[in-house]
């Protein structure tokens, strides 16, 4: 008769992927003495370092604040598309964080000017 042994850590071997631990489960025969117990099958389960953060994010996805944020997403995506497609914000033209920040600031200013020009003009109030 075979029994599933609880999760056996084999000295926490690293898998070939740097972000995972190798967890091995084995089934052993129910024989005595223990020298005759031999594994009949192996199963490897990879557990990521980021598992806790992933589970927290999945839990947050079910909340109302997440749903409100997702309603804002199309507006923000449209702005990002305009900045990258029309105003050259996809790539930094020069090296350095200061110059890249300046380039993005100028792209944002140009986008804001375009939006300002597109605003409908209000009629002047009638003189009484």
**Strand share of the residues?**
15-25%
Total number of strands: 3
The end-to-end span amounts to 100 Å
The ordered string of helix (H) and strand (E) elements is: EEEHHH
**Spatial strand arrangement across the major sheet:** 1-2-3
How would you explain this protein's 3D organization?
- It is a single chain.
- The chain folds into two domains: 2-50, no CATH class; 76-118, no CATH class.
- It contains three helices and three strands.
- The protein has helices spanning 51-60, 64-86, 97-118, and strands spanning 2-4, 20-29, 39-48.
- The protein has a three-stranded antiparallel β-sheet, with no helix packed on it.
- The termini are far apart.
Characteristic terms for this protein:
128 residues, 2 domains, elongated, 18% strand, single chain, three-stranded antiparallel sheet, 3 helices
Short description:
The chain folds into 2 domains: 2-50, no CATH class; 76-118, no CATH class. The chain has 3 helices and 3 strands, in the order E-E-E-H-H-H. The chain has helices at residues 51-60, 64-86, 97-118, and strands at 2-4, 20-29, 39-48.
Spell out the blueprint of helices and strands.
Layout: E1 2-4, E2 20-29, E3 39-48, H1 51-60, H2 64-86, H3 97-118
Antiparallel strand pairs: 1-2, 2-3
């Amino acid at each position: 008769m075979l029994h599933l042994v609880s999760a056996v850590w084999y000295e926490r071997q690293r898998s070939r992927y740097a972000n995972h631990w190798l967890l091995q489960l084995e089934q052993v025969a129910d024989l005595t003495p223990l020298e005759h117990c031999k594994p009949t099958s192996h199963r490897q389960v990879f557990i990521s370092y980021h598992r806790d953060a992933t589970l927290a994010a999945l839990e947050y996805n079910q909340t109302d604040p997440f749903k409100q944020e997702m309603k804002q997403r199309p507006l923000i995506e449209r702005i990002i598309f305009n900045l990258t497609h029309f105003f050259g914000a996809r790539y930094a033209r020069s090296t350095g964080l200061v110059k890249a920040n300046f380039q993005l600031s100028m792209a944002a200013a140009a986008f804001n000017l375009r939006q300002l020009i597109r605003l409908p003009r209000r009629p002047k109030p009638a003189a009484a």
